[in-house]
Amino acid sequence: MATDSATADRADRTGLPDGLWRVDGSASNAFLVRDGDGHDAPLYLVDAGVPGDAGAIRAAVSNAGYDLRAVDGVLLTHYDYDHVGALAKLAELDCPVYAADPDASFLDGSRKPGLWPHKALIQRVAGVFTDPPGLPVERVADGDTVGSFTAYHTPGHGPGHLAWVSEDRGVGFLGDLVREADGALAASPWYISYDPDTVRASVRDLDDRAPEFATACVGHGDPVSPGGREALATLAASLRG
């Protein structure tokens, strides 16, 4: 894949299957995925980084052979500044954002995060610096589908956190439910989570329910590909008492 020299380290698909691109943002990863074979298949942006990542997202979309107007939807894993911040800066987007409540309501401004636990307070403060995206926000629930992707409600890191998994595309977008280090997955730590016990329960639940996928894409760390599903199973096994 050709890359713009100014953002060569920010838009990458090395080691990823065809039709999947990583945006290595300044604080977290975002991804672009083509949901099918051929250039005209639906195209989804998964998460959107901080506001300063808008240029890297544009470059990734361009390097994939598209422009932002071709994006058919944004699959949001959760409402955090480093996952939604650039949406308002991507004025060319003309598509729905798919998210679960209460995160969907945090995003469109119809509701604010609470003051407790500490992670909610962090979200509330960060919300002062997060502009609504100006896009329709479509509420999804556990088991809903967008294209070949199924939404799995995986709370703990945040109350509306979703994992998006497509058996057809062989990819799971796990957001911040887990993070990667040295090729292994670890559960979201307590200091950035609403409830670490719920995080661990969500990891086990996702392992119980999710289909096979080769590539696990995470908000923090490198994608695990191949072996993504096995990495999730290994983590879940370590969390079973």
Description:
By secondary structure, the chain is of the alpha/beta class. The protein has one domain (5-238): Metallo-beta-lactamase, Chain A, CATH 3.60.15.10. It contains 6 helices and 14 strands. The strands form 3 sheets. Strands 1-2-3-4-5-6-7 form a 7-stranded mixed sheet. The protein has a 5-stranded mixed sheet with strand order 8-9-10-11-14, covered by helices on one side. Strand 5, helix 2 (81-84) and strand 6 form a beta-alpha-beta unit. The longest helix has 14 residues, at 196-209. The protein is globular and about 45 Å long. The termini are far apart.
How is the topology of this model organized?
Elements: E1 11-12, E2 20-24, E3 29-34, E4 43-46, H1 54-63, E5 73-75, H2 81-84, E6 97-99, H3 103-108, H4 118-127, E7 137-139, E8 145-146, E9 149-153, E10 162-166, E11 171-175, E12 178-181, E13 184-187, H5 196-209, E14 215-218, H6 228-238
Parallel strand pairs: 4-5, 5-6, 6-7, 11-14
Antiparallel strand pairs: 1-2, 2-3, 3-4, 8-9, 9-10, 10-11, 12-13
Helix pairs in contact: 5-6
What percentage of amino acids are in beta strands?
15-25%
Summed up, the domain count is 1
Number of helices: 6
**Count of strand segments:** 14
Radius of gyration: 16 Å
Question: What is the CATH C level class, in words?
Answer: Alpha Beta
**Helix/strand/pairing class, anyone?**
alpha/beta
Pick out the low-confidence regions: 1-13
CATH superfamily (homologous) name: Ribonuclease Z/Hydroxyacylglutathione hydrolase-like
What attributes does this structure have?
241 residues, alpha/beta, Metallo-beta-lactamase, Chain A, 7-stranded mixed beta sheet, 5-stranded mixed beta sheet, 6 helices
